[in-house]
Amino acid sequence: PRLSCFAGGVNRELVQSRLRWAGSKKKLVPKYRELMPDAPALYVEPFAGSAAILFATGPQPAALGDINEPLIDTYRWIRSDPEDVHEAYKSYRKGAAPYYRARAEYNTCSPGPRRSGLFLYLNRLCFNGIYRTNKSGEFNVPYGGARASPPLALADICAASRLLKKVKLRKQDFGRTIEEFCSPRAFFFIDPPYFTSGRRTFTEYSKRPFSENDLARLHHALKHIDRAGARFMVSYAKTPEARALAGKWNSRELRVHRQIGGFADTRRYEIEMVITNYDT
Predict the structure, then answer these.
(1) Could you tell me the CA-to-CA distances from 144 to 96, 134, 157, 280 in Å, in that order?
(2) pTM of the complete model
């Protein structure tokens, strides 16, 4: 018989992001938690991605927005139907042949628990946790081989489902999410893709890459948040663009250890800039 998602109590340690995502902030969670304001009335992530900070801190109420529709659909189906999502997820086994069969099915699948389970499966086994599509919107990331992540248990998905019960989910551009939820007691954690003219970065989290124009729109959105009396924290790679984005606001630097190209033997330290419109 199939296990029930809601049998037994909640193990708080399981409530963490189980998604792999390029640029995820999982390694910086303890440092960000120290810098976040206490008990905001509403916690908002306009660039949801793996939502690592939300899952690690569990703020309520909250809102997640992202332009990546399958990502937000997956959060919605995890919230409403975690058992069926897990059934779809576990229907495929690890290996290159099952992976490519799942990828082909995913690209023809309609939104629902089946596609969301396939989304989780591909996310766990694809190269470097990247979500990338071709011009037709088809997911095309190759199999990750030995670097694939361990499997998800039903308990993992159920714990995420319980946390998401009070989270508003929006499939939309970051500007619309900021406009919708901007209020004096809101706190925005903003972790955009890194556009920079100085070096190549991965920005293809949806059909349309994050661009210089999007960065300019983000700058205007930060001014809007500030004028409204809300607070924000922006995480961005240390670049000339980040220094320009910081402007008159507060900023500090954090050192983070990254793998380059997904390979454990190619590591380096990089500097993240944390920009806030409040004292930390």
Answers:
(1) 8, 18, 22, 39
(2) 0.86
